[in-house]
Amino acid sequence: MQIPHDTRRALDVVVALVNTAPEGDQPDLLADVRALRTFVHEHAISDVGELGARDLAGVRTVRGKFGQVFAAPNARTAAGLINELVATAGTTPQLTDHDGYDWHVHYFAPGASVGDHLAADGGMALAFIVVSGEQERLRRCEAPDCRRAFVDLSRNRSRRYCDSRTCGNRLHVAAYRARRKSEQEEVVHGGGQKQHADHP
């Protein structure tokens, strides 16, 4: 699937944001303004001023909406959520080539809050996926103790885990051990039956 660089980058930020939400044993990774500052810095989110409690609340709201898009049962539901996101953000597309990047589109309005910034750029990136008929690529890890969000960009839409080297390998190892245990129990059980038959 061909995705423009700026759309791919926005999707990466969407996924990272969704995965800050508390899930299972994982605490809220956006617990305070300091955590929000770290998130903004790590993901090089541009045009962000001083951050405060209001920004934190706004970003958490956007995070919840993004999470709902990943859980949407169909494209119509996802589209409704995305339309709400970009409308609330006051989307204002503009071309820019800031910080050495080639020309790309920013969808957030100049001076927008970080929440509106994420809602606009992330919402339009998600819109690209839905318009392309690829909503099923918005997935949650199938590892029962994980459930992290990811975008499946594999050619045949076959990716099942957020990270094949961690969750994927862990489940494959667990499945292998379960098969080995089952085979060993079958051998022991089968041997017992044979012994019982030989010695009535």
Radius of gyration: 23 Å
Number of helices: 6
What structural class should be given to the helix and strand makeup? mainly alpha
CATH topology of the largest domain: Jann2411-like fold
- Return the average pLDDT rounded to an integer: 85
Give the terminus-to-terminus CA distance: 66 Å
Plain-language structure description:
- This protein has 200 residues and is mainly alpha-helical.
- It folds into 2 domains: 5-160, Jann2411-like fold (Orthogonal Bundle); 163-200.
- The protein is 56% helix and 6% strand.
Summary tags:
200 residues; mainly alpha; Jann2411-like fold; 2 domains; two-stranded antiparallel ribbon; 6 helices; 4 strands; ABATE_dom_sf; ABATE; Znf_CGNR; CGNR zinc finger domain-containing protein
Describe the protein's topology.
Blueprint: H1 5-18, H2 33-42, H3 53-71, H4 75-89, E1 94-96, E2 104-106, H5 114-131, E3 138-140, E4 149-151, H6 164-198
Antiparallel strand pairs: 1-2, 3-4
Helix pairs in contact: 1-3, 1-5, 3-4, 3-5, 4-5
Concise synopsis of the structure shown:
Residues 178-200 are annotated as: Disordered. By secondary structure, the chain is mainly alpha-helical.
